[in-house]
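User: Can you predict the 3D structure for this chain?
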Amino acid sequence: MTESSSHMFDNRAIVIGAGLGGLAAAMRLGAKGYAVTVLDRLDRAGGRGSSIEQDGHRFDLGPTIVTVPQVFEKLWQDCGHRFHDDVDIRAIEPFYEIRWPDGTKFEAYGETERMKAEVAKISPSDVAGYEKFLKDSHTRYVVGFEGMLTKPMHRLWETVKVLPLFAWLRADQSIYKLASKRVRDEKLRMALSFHPLFIGGDPTMVTSMYALVAHLEKEFGVHYAIGGVQAIADAMARVVRRQGGVVRQGAEVDEILLEGQRARGVRLTTGETLEAPLVVSNADAGHTYDRLLRNHKRRRWTATKLGKKRWSMGLYVWYFGTKGTAEEWPDLGHHTILNGPRFKGLLRDIFIKGKLSDDMSLYIHRPAKTDPNVAPAGDDTFYVLSPVPHMGWKNAVDWQAEEPIYRKKVAAVLETVMPGFQDRISTELVFTPDTFRDRYLSPHGCGFSIEPRILQSAWFRPHNVSEEAEGLFLVGAGTHPGAGLPGVVSSAEVIAKLIPDAPVVDLQARVAAE
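Assistant: Here is the predicted structure, written as structure tokens:
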């Protein structure tokens, strides 16, 4: 049987990585009739959205906020199922609370009047500017989210077409600059522009199109999945298996195999080979090209080109359980952001200088406020995140030496809002950029792959359909549309538009062709 004829009768597909993007791709391919095998090196599904259970506590390792649940609802619907039959998500209000060292607090809500009241508490003269910012946010949502999220961007023309709109919206300006045009108070500028940090971007550098996040929150709310994002990943894996697919944990892909310029399968680190004419990589785009295609000459995504990209920041994450604290610190809610004394200066240290600062901003996740199953009765589970430089800088941070020192600095800040917490710690776990490199095979130990700057977005980002091999597709944070749960899940919808339905496998015809 010739190579071309063999593909006519082969409906096998391999997905590398059981992150949310890979599982969404597997679901969509299963709905198209493919026999899907998902391969993942971890012990459970979810990738960066997986969890670890330790001493009665469940630590959700990655994303904690579910925005735009409609993205998941559509995915399930397109696969013939109902999302809410499989996953229990709860709306949270306030969405989060932002605090500053001087005691100022800002709570985020969906209702416009409540948000205006929060703005007025800090700076009454900025309420009118905030209303203008909401209009900015809605316009960018229509163009950037509704117009581009699930649209393939592997052809330059698709990006060129939107350039006039981008010029009109001043997409070349940063989200921080847009916020600064609308409000004068520095605290409010931070509150309106910090969202790109949730997907690895510097608010003073990434495009003002990310103002659309304010509209997403306002329109669709902020949610939490009972059981964490792990519960969503597990539900996705169940759908894949219901479709007849296979999800293999503890199976690490070492190389994507090509026949000429066409994908033909993968080789695992054990030496096992799996054949399929369709391969979808949910591994980081940098890892896919630099490692998994290392034995093939690349036309676009060479090591040199990848080396010139700007990568997202690293993350220091301290997970810990506390004994008997369910009633302690009653003003500390589900999501809290603690600002350090500097905003722009800290961003410069992290994204421009690659320097680990003494001061910091922290995100505190206290899921037991919504989900009692994350901790033993009466106890708490915490996740405290600090943005830090990635490991690709000269004189990169030596986390083996620095981690215990940095933990003490983080603890000193936490003591200001959780007095006495260190005496109540019953179990703990720490992730540094080293962990992200080793656990997730993330280039430079980055938290979110390539940084979402304007010239690293849409066509300029690694494409969903690979230029390096026919039959190879990319999903996840490093490709279009980018990081964050809506982004990685939507990347699977993009490839579903590019991949035809599976061929009907007629075994008799296949045998005859052979």
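The longest helix spans residues 127-146. The two ends are 4 Å apart (CA to CA).
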